[in-house]
Amino acid sequence: MKFESGNGVYSMDKWRKSDKKIAKELFELARKRDYANLIDIIQLKSKNLTIPETIWDLREFLNYKAKEFDQKYDYRYSVLDQVFANFIREDLLSLDEFQSLSKEKQDQIQHMVNILGKLS
Amino acid sequence: MKFESGNGVYSMDKWRKSDKKIAKELFELARKRDYANLIDIIQLKSKNLTIPETIWDLREFLNYKAKEFDQKYDYRYSVLDQVFANFIREDLLSLDEFQSLSKEKQDQIQHMVNILGKLS
After folding, report:
1. Cα of A62 vs its chain's centroid, Å
2. Residue A107: inside a domain, yes or no?
3. ipTM
């Protein structure tokens, strides 16, 4: 898929150098928020620990989250549009926060949000 | 290893019927205390969660504890003397709490505490 812009033609998985720095900051912002949310959930679950099953449920939850984070925080440029679209769908980032990116990249990410939105 | 008593000769791994019921209660008492201790530790660790590493440290801790509990709570009569001796060494049970058991069984467990004490 290709997009026309004043500066030329960009394919879906190309990232301009000027966008890359902003992308990295947004990626780390999402991760930071995700970890803060996770800590809140763990602290709530820990307060409610009573019977043994709840301890091992917490263990399963953390094992699941470890795998989820490992898969979710994938910084390959080839998948980054989709990664950011997922962050938006999970309310870790808002579309407004992508305004510093080039218009082309914003459109690509918006497009991916729409595609993923239809799939789920 | 055999012990003489007024009621006959008992080998180290034999459990009288009258001792078995008490043993099961003591075993469950140790487990209950161990879980209560574990919940206290998890709640303390959860309060201190700050950076991502502490989340994954908690995960590792729970995975370790799951294996430890699985190995520790082994109710085969052939290993129960050693299991109880370990409970005593870990302060999950006191020797006083074994007073309802037959004198032979108390002596066997005390003997195992001594052996394990020397090894550690």
Report:
1. 19
2. yes
3. 0.81
